[in-house]
Amino acid sequence: MTYQNYTLEQLQQIDAAHHLHPFTDHKDLRDAGSRVITHAKGPFIYDAAGNEILDGMAGLWCVAIGYGRDELADAAYAQMKELPYYNSFFRCSTPTPILLSQKLAEIAPSNMNQVFYGSSGSEANDTALRLVRWYWALEGKPRKNRVISRHMAYHGSTITGASLGGMQGMHDQLGGAVPNIAHVMMPYAYELAQPGESDHDFGLRAARAVEDEILRVGADNVAAFIGEPIQGAGGVKIPPASYWPEIQRICRQYDVLLMLDEVITGYGRTGDWFAAQSMGIEADTITTAKALTSGYQPLSALFVSDRVAATIVEKGGEFYHGYTYSGHPVACAVALKNIEIIEREGMIERVRDETGPYLAKALKERIEGHDLVGEVRSFGFLGAIEIVRDKATRQRFQPGGSAAVLIRDHAIANGMMLRATGDTMILSPPLIWTKETIDMACDRIVKALDLAKEDLR
Ligand code: PLP
User: Fold this and answer.
1) pTM (2 decimals)?
2) For the CA of 120, the nearest atom of ligand 1
């Protein structure tokens, strides 16, 4: 029986009765009823009430090539018929992860030639943490096992992901995080730069918070620094250009590994395959997922640098770690096809040279002047809109986050899917957006801002 045999109300009732959702207040959900998305095509999603919504979030930062691509469905179907599953444990392999690994090594930064697969970004970060700690143990430095992260970082939702992340609400619910992980300030100039402090100086100061922590606990005790090139779920916080070079200098000086989390930024969003390339960062591990398959299948790939891989391979013996679905043949077949489409259609070049700059200009010219907007910023196809009560003083509406939720709800009601983190509206479109789609999005965002302004009078 298919869902078409049910009314929307029936689906909502069943959902409320049996389905626990991620990041959801279930009392709220039961009062409001879930929004049931039934199908999607290109840049649009459609809900069971018949609404067409422009998806400004690419699903959850993942649907890079847009919805309804038959080629991905065909790749999955063909692979399922030939070999739906076999594992890659115990010296077995299957063709699609082999070929995907070769392709990933080709597009990755040149010091990255090995990948480890999982099904989610959280799993990949779990693997990354295990790998860097194991690396230092194999190098004869088992005490070099602390990791430095940032406030408001998001690295996933398993206990490791939440512990690496810097979301206070998540830590409050953990009942004990993974030990030896510290969090320092984030490079968020809009709220944290001091009056008169230049972006450049602020970027250096934010990076030196990492150095301070290394000096506080001793470099012999610090395994790695982990960071998203641009903090995504934490509010699309784009660091000043001075930040990452200084982080790199600090990591090199104290021999601290650099773990990049590119679960959001990977596979084209910043106008290169990886933000490491856009920002000139040389990392020791890079976590990726999401746009690797454009969300059509669950798959993550953790890139491991030649330096780390050499130690693991030469000195490590068996690494007691892996997932049933590591290197899943169907997910890897879909990833291969997805990457082929991104390349064939020149999506990354378009974001870098044409649509990314157009989005930046549109946000500046059409959104930043609005009375409720304190700042817009973007990098490639990641954008943020800061919501304020007062542009000059940057004072926010109270309670915190309430205005952004209001704007988000108006946006959705007017056919525009946006997300809010605190007082920041977030935009992460599929890479297929054209200039016309960007114009349509801006029209709808302005409308949502105008409606919210009326409500907030
Ligand atoms: N890392 C980053 C930067 C993310 O944004 C996310 C998810 O949004 C994750 C890790 C976790 O990925 P997953 O939800 O697939 O476990």
Assistant:
1) 0.97
2) 15
